[in-house]
Amino acid sequence: MDKQPIDNTKESRLSAQQITRNFDDLHPPLNAQQAGMEASRCLFCYDAPCVIACPTAIDIPKFIRQIATGNDVGAARTILSANIMGGTCARACPTEILCEQKCVLAKGEDHPINISALQRHAVDPVIAAASSHLFARKPETGKTIAIIGAGPAGLSCAHALAVLGHDVQVFEAREKPGGLNEYGLAAYKMVNDFAAREVEFVLGIGGISIEYNKALGRDVFLEQLQEKVDAVFIGIGLGNANSLDITGESLNGVQDALQFIADLRQAKDKSALEIGQQVIVIGGGNTAIDAAIQAKRLGANSVTLVYRRGLAQMGATAWEQDLAKTNGVVLLEWSKPLKIQGKTKVQSMVFERTKLENGKLLATGDEFVLPADQVLVAIGQSLENQILGDLKTKYGKIKVGDDGQTNICGVFAGGDCIASGEDLTVQAVQDGKIAAKGIHNYLGGGNV
């Protein structure tokens, strides 16, 4: 995949035109000829390893063969039957460590099939059409399911249940649906309001209604819902941003990286956003990378991403790390934050060098200071345990069985709030699918 160059030539602040260019689509779509040529490279493997590597088990060789034979709509149906949010996953899924990494062509001297681009080629026209839907609802069952959270897990579960004929009432804490697809992914990965258009497509099946600004534990309560509906699905994600717990974290200029990304995603005019000139990002995951690159693309003179371990231990993939470097982000490893300095606003940060010794991370006592006027913190999120009531947790997340059911009968959960795998959109979609089947079975519908 190409790495979009950054336009950062400036004497002072970037112009609106420069910023617009910097947030163009990271991966421009393939045209018909390009898609046909790429699809023709596929070996259509039996027991394809790319399918096994996909959390939603999309039949990748089948949809690529459909593209190769000119059946793009059929390819979209194959994709969306397995992953109703295949459009977002084609843009944001780390295919370099999932399906494309397993492509047999990569085992030789060739490069893997560009599966994500082909997936987008098939799905995007269907999402854009908006006038038709590839799926039809079964006869109504008279059953109603409440879903808490309109993120990927909740929407996946809602769509699967609606197809089966159930009515679904979704309660969303924010003003828009989509969860991290809408608020948490880099703007250059999700251009032209794609997340919103994808949600519109998902809701096109019918039988799904959404109420906004309804948060669990504030406006919606599990016990009350259980009295009104036949089953409940919880897909609330992880609502608490982890803090550094160091001196100076309350200074002006220190911000949660996810909130920074959300503000940027929702801004109608990105050039109006304030950005520091010496930005430090703390963290080693994809959120940290997204925040760092976007700070640079907004016009920061210097952006340094600081991680307490080495690059090999970072949650962000090597491809994402390389993208950050291409965009002028400095990756500083083996450095632990000690304190943030300044009177009312950030002026600098103090770090201490670290090292691994017998598998344990140790501080070396070697301290150094970096100037900064903005600090973005991306060290993960945690579950809001105070709103869970009698729900049991494990490893800090809601505990569920193989069918997605919690310890409370008729209450299911999925997405980042459970420990099912990587915190990825594609895994959340799969969690929603699993829970939908579990709910349908629980309601007496039988296995599907």
Task: Describe what is shown at a glance.
The chain contains 16 helices and 17 strands.
Set down the secondary structure blueprint.
Elements: H1 16-22, H2 32-39, H3 49-53, H4 60-68, H5 72-82, H6 86-92, H7 99-102, H8 115-129, E1 144-148, H9 152-163, E2 167-171, H10 180-183, H11 194-203, E3 208-211, H12 222-228, E4 231-234, E5 240-241, E6 254-256, H13 257-266, E7 278-282, H14 286-298, E8 302-306, H15 318-326, E9 330-332, E10 335-341, E11 348-357, E12 360-371, E13 374-377, E14 381-382, E15 393-394, E16 397-398, E17 411-413, H16 425-442
Parallel strand pairs: 1-2, 1-4, 2-3, 4-17, 6-13, 7-8, 7-13, 8-9
Antiparallel strand pairs: 5-14, 10-11, 11-12, 15-16
Question: How would you describe what is shown here?
Answer:
The protein is of the alpha/beta class and 448 residues long. Helix content is 33%, strand content 17%. It has a 5-stranded parallel beta sheet, sandwiched between helices. The protein has a 5-stranded parallel beta sheet with strand order 6-13-7-8-9. Helix 15 links the parallel strand 8 (302-306) and strand 9. The model is unreliable at 1-6 (pLDDT under 50).
Can you give keywords for this protein?
single chain, 448 residues, alpha/beta, Fumarate Reductase Iron-sulfur Protein, Chain B, domain 2, FAD/NAD(P)-binding domain, 5-stranded parallel β-sheet, 16 helices, 17 strands, 33% helix, globular, disordered N terminus
Strand order, main sheet: write it out: 3-2-1-4-17
- Largest sheet descriptor: 5 strands, parallel
CATH architecture of the largest domain: 3-Layer(bba) Sandwich
| Quaternary organisation of the protein chains | single chain
Tally of helical runs: 16
- The whole-number mean of residue pLDDT values reads 94
Q: What percent strand?
A: 15-25%
Percent of residues in helical segments?
25-40%
Number of domains: 3
Alpha-carbon Rg, integer = 23 Å
Distance between the termini: 37 Å
CATH evolutionary superfamily of the largest domain: FAD/NAD(P)-binding domain
Highest CATH level, the class of the largest domain: Alpha Beta
Label the overall shape.
globular
Show unreliable segments. 1-6
Determine the structural class based on helices, strands and strand pairing: alpha/beta
Q: How many E-type strands?
A: 17
CATH topology name of the largest domain, in short, is FAD/NAD(P)-binding domain
